[in-house]
């Protein structure tokens, strides 16, 4: 379990990283926290010719509030965001989500942008970004901003072009009147979610996203629903996830999880709505 | 031979105390001495093993030239070398089945070693693995036990003529007598493949010293050292020309490190080929896929039982699935437990049918609990079935059938001699603890609020200190007579006094973290009146220098009963000798000489005393002063074998272990109907393991075995696909319990000394591996009892299985979004992809693209080259990948069933460093007003590394790759697909999945 040979360049700034990506394209990989990449390299599931290490870039490690969003730079670790003093006010959903993201040792190294760029369909941060209607800042020859909705295109697949860096992600700040709920089921504490549901509620409606079932996190928006109407909406959503039978679980059981966790997440979101 | 604890004036004996571990300072400060930490000789090379990606395939040819030409590569060992210098591994069942250290003409499981690259570093060696070209001819894989038994099944070993390598029937008492007042109650269980995975995987360092000196190897092999003979025979050298050493520390073993032995042989041969020492460190992927596994079992067990619950006879019909080869010491999983198949119960009549089958899976072997989890899973499920069917309390039923306290020593019908115990009293103590925990109140409260809460129990006898002869029960009495009787389990230990009166102990026990050093020091300190810290214990093991025998090693919970006993006997020999010397010096009788507080003194005249270090050092410096009849030297070795262990008798009775502890478990658990999660709420385990040498270490053993039993019950399973592909290659796929999943355990002890072992101790390291899986299974069945009578419980209790049992409602949506995929759950990695693409071109044009190699090359995503090798057959070089995961495949593409321009079948197969892939499906074209609707329905199978490490992702990945292919086809045929991205985005915004 040793990686194939690769070149390694450590960069400080976004320009250097982008120049290398433009030169090497798909043969280059950004190394940030390495929590997915290093395992993939060691198992030789990928053999990039160049690693561009941004992990020590202070410029890229910034977390700041801008334009109504918490903007998290490419080198900022999950722990750095998790332990941000104002997180509970700014992004109450993430306060609920972080304990489910693997274990603290991994959050100490893993980056927020790395998780989003990797686009594991079970990962919590892509799910959170989607339900909060966040954005991904991509930097190639020029900068472009892509809505989370359009960023995740399939399993491990995103709208990022091979010469682009995920420069930052933007989580919209919680608004007065919003409430948040999160439920996840995995085999063990910290494991990949078999099903995870995040919900945002305000006095007008609900936004619910499900991860771990489809090939990417998917979201739905509804007006405020209750009782049977909510059940029906969740059921339609559960079926739309296109769950498949596999050696772990039947599609019916996955839909069951989506419905039950969905109900719980919505209930929690409704209960935690703040007063406007 | 029951030892009496030493009554030391003013102090308690150290044995029996919760002494802190002497090992821990080194371990906690990074001074552990594990195999991979040891320095190697200059010039040592590093090995990597090429392994089969196929479960079953002929080995047509192998080309290693490109690998040899890679700078830094020094040698490649192949099956031809192994055949030249070695011979197949010997095994207890005589069958024409050949198991070589490297596959020679066929591979029979995913991960089977095919070649070894030896290079200047491990990186280069792994680079070279990808350069070896092996031409495989895939065969049908035999995956499940039922399939292996079926008439006309593909054979793994043609010369055997069957996949059943051994079948034996046994009858004890009169099991076929018709018991007029009884009825028959039966259950069938399937014990899955699982393991007790250690933190440290295998490490081997080997050197060939030439024809005169043979081989020198160091590894973290744990024994049994009977397998040293198997290794030497496989290397074609006498035992004394295979020197084998074990370092002081081993990072967990749990039986699993028994499976290091084939790699000791393999690396010896690799070193011979390379002409230099070779080091190999097994990685996690190799370990999980190809090291070993617990034996899977299909068992049907039937009881003749009276209406009051008294069991009169038991009938076992068992099939053990041992993987591709029967590997020593298999089929010991059966025979370790054979003598005690009646468990804790007094049952006079017993009938057994044992069959051993091979399948295309990793060979099985020792895994902590060895044989016990399989037996008790069947027996204790049966007890619960009886309780349910006769409506008797499960505990009362067990009590009724227990071997009673006044029956010990109790001879079980198949030969086990249960040496001591009081099962009812242990049960009382455990139940009292359960009452303290409020177990029944918790169940009542949970059920009252609609929760699924169950209580389960299990009662087992825990054998320890194996009879090395039990394995010969697999032979008939006639075969045994020919081969010569085998029995016993010699333990050995040496205690020596050095020039300054320091005491050194050496044992041949190859510990893996259990604390053997601590207990040995306690035992010797008691014998010689010293402090444990004064006693140095060396647990390194060297076959060329240590006292050892067939039973040496770290298995069968033999340390407390056998090894610590041998240490005691050796220490007593030293004490006896020093007593004679002291009596001579003090002018008193030997009976007056005492050892305490670091001194040797005359009890009749307490003024006569000397420090131990002085009196014990003297014989080195002044041998002339030794009393008459006392030989020089203070180094005593004791060999001990339990007298109760005999070879199997003519009636196939065998006492498989020297001593038997007792475990009674009771637990409460809750099942979450929302998620299928099973949470153990309270767990009480009661142990009678004879005299406890160090209760703190005993509790540690119980805690560890419990965690593994919990893993077996809820999490751990080696999964295989229908094609024999292995799907649990990482610790994200093979899940073990962590601290978060392991509840606090309530441990209750009782001590009924063993009359068999020198210190009265019994083994206790494996009890919960045996009792916990079935205790949880029983509690699970009880949790569901208000809703259903669950006759069969399949372990592990994964959420998928639990939700399937609960038959959760799955209301249909108002509008069905997709036709549901028709893949039954649990069928392995038969990947399916279906879809439709609208193409703005006529079906004729689309068809033309498919039939044109130049156009086809542009259609296939990642295709570097495509050349025709026959009509509608192509060889292609394709990079396939999803996200950052990518591999370059050598692929063959075949178009068939061509019905232009309506349909064709497109099939492909390929191999890469990530393994093999094959898929195929029907492509159908239908003219539409705007062009063509192409629909596809695909299935694919993926084997090798990609399946081992990516099973969670493969389904989605296959869908992406197939979708890419047909979208690309659409672009090629029509210039572009009809759905531009902006349209997709709008649809998606509207909540329509595209």
Structural class of chain B: alpha+beta
What is the residue-mean pLDDT of chain B, rounded to a whole number? 93
Rounded mean pLDDT of chain A is 96
The major sheet of chain B is characterized as: 8 strands, mixed
| Proportion of residues in helical segments of chain A | 25-40%
What does it look like?
The complex is a heterodimer of chains A (276) and B (994). Chain A has 276 residues and is of the alpha+beta class. Chain A has three domains: 7-53, 2-Layer Sandwich (Uridine Diphospho-n-acetylenolpyruvylglucosamine Reductase, domain 2); 59-172, Uridine Diphospho-n-acetylenolpyruvylglucosamine Reductase, domain 3 (2-Layer Sandwich), CATH 3.30.465; 179-271, CO dehydrogenase flavoprotein, C-terminal domain (Enolase-like, domain 1, 2-Layer Sandwich). Chain A has eleven helices and 14 strands. In chain A, strands 4-5-10-6-7 form a five-stranded antiparallel sheet. A four-stranded antiparallel sheet of chain A has the order 11-12-13-14, sandwiched between helices. Chain A has a three-stranded parallel sheet with strand order 1-3-2, covered by helices on one side. The longest helix of chain A has 21 residues, at 251-271. The N and C termini of chain B lie far apart (79 Å). Chain B is of the alpha+beta class and 994 residues long. The radius of gyration of chain B is 32 Å and the shape is globular. Chain B has four domains: 36-139 and 200-288, Alpha-Beta Complex (Aldehyde Oxidoreductase, domain 3), CATH 3.90.1170.50; 167-193 and 293-473 and 646-803, 2-Layer Sandwich (Aldehyde Oxidoreductase, domain 4); 490-640, Aldehyde oxidase/xanthine dehydrogenase, molybdopterin binding domain (Aldehyde Oxidoreductase, domain 4, 2-Layer Sandwich), CATH 3.30.365; 830-989, Alpha-D-Glucose-1,6-Bisphosphate, Chain A, domain 4 (2-Layer Sandwich), CATH 3.30.530. In chain B, α10 runs parallel beside α19 (767-784) and α21 (843-851) crosses α23. The chains are: A alpha+beta (276), B alpha+beta (994). The interface between A and B is large, with 61 and 75 residues.
